[in-house]
Amino acid sequence: MSGKMPNKVFIEEHLKHCLENLSTKESYIPGVIVGQVIGENYYVVHLSAINIQNEHTNKSHALVYNCPSDLMIDSNRIFQKSLEVVNLLPGGSHVLGLFFIVPQDLKSVQPININFHEFNNLLVESPLCDKNKSWNYLQLNYSTVNKKSFCYTVDFNSVTTPITTTYKSISEIFGSFDNDWVTLVGKFNFDALDRFNVSGGPKALISIRQILLNKLESILNGSVCTFNGNVYDENQTLKDFECNRMGDLLTNVINVEFYRKLDPGNECKKASLKVERGKGKILMSGLCSLAVPFNRNGTIKSAIKAIHEDAMRTFTIRLNMHLQLLAEEEDIEEEDDDTHIVHETPRRILILKTEGSRFVFSDYVFPGEAPQSSLSVAGEILNLPEQNMKLCDELERGRHSYYETLPDMDSNLTQDTIAVTTNNHIMLYLSLMAVLIAILGYSIVYM
């Protein structure tokens, strides 16, 4: 895997304290590097030690090893834990690599030769990862002896046998980059896809999941994206963009909107996905929020790519949450055939890291689930103490107003209902009824 080599690694100053606080005299400690690649450079916003839970005390602590060989033998556990971090990332942000706390003088420390090829293979299997990335992973080593760090890029050639790995040094800069970050915020509708008629219940929907995702991606690629209401040249950076404030937590916000090219004769055409098998029905509709942290040094082109990634991620996660739940319930036998089970749309919440650039991570909860519990779980995965996190659940709090505009599908359906299923008799109605539209619901028609 070879890509164009970035020039420098910019790491937020508070992360140096994170490395110092993790340090022990005798142990090797692995962790995950989170950030973005913008142009020629890496921008690191978070370092997450890999936490495990003590079976006896029920408390978590950082994963530690006595020597590098133990660490490499247990590498699969490190890689699997990295996937948990991936699930919390917004579009445009990635697991950039791995860091290691080493109890040696850094001058004598060589890169830890962990299997980055296997690490990459595991990550790209996730539907949330960029399979076409052009950058190389990072390895950041920090010495507990002389309190110094050293950074490498990792390039591996998967064509040769055995696979060869090359480590090259790259300059890292710790500093304050708080004003270099913005959050791109917007919304889009589920109502984006063409009509499908499928028989077979929820499991049939699982079989066409990738078709739905591909169609959404196609629509995104054919849409126009505006920033604060304007269209910009794709090579322009976001350095001089004016920002807004959203609530008490989100600062440096740039509003984004999607517009789709339409056939003037089909503006009102409605589309839906419908699976019939009885008298029940499932309705999946409403607004999805977009929340993309982005470095101001990036271009409009890169920002749009990050926004598209975020739209695909949020759609993928919500769809998977429903399909998993519905498939499980289809296998459950109920004594009462008329029992109705109601599912509501999973809601996106943001987990704001209050240090440094105030980076936002992302998670999802069903109505009735306490967002605070999601905050606790994310804190364990990201190795973030509670005092350094804030919960932001405002972006999708008012989604019920959208449902009020939908046609009355069934008198038994309540507002905000995502799914109603009846035992052994299921009609799935995934409502994707309009076009990918902007926050205010407008569309631009190109003649």
From TrEMBL:
GO biological process per UniProt: intracellular protein localization
Record-annotated membrane-spanning stretches: 426-445
Record keywords, A-Z: Membrane, Transmembrane, Transmembrane helix
Pfam families: ODR4-like (PF14778)
Subcellular location: Membrane
GO CC annotation, single: endomembrane system
Keyword hit for Cytoplasm: no
Keyword Amino-acid biosynthesis carried by entry: no
Similarity remark: Belongs to the ODR-4 family.
Name listed for the protein in its UniProt record: ODR-4-like
Naturally occurring in which organism (per UniProt): Cinara cedri
Taxonomic lineage from the root: Eukaryota, Metazoa, Ecdysozoa, Arthropoda, Hexapoda
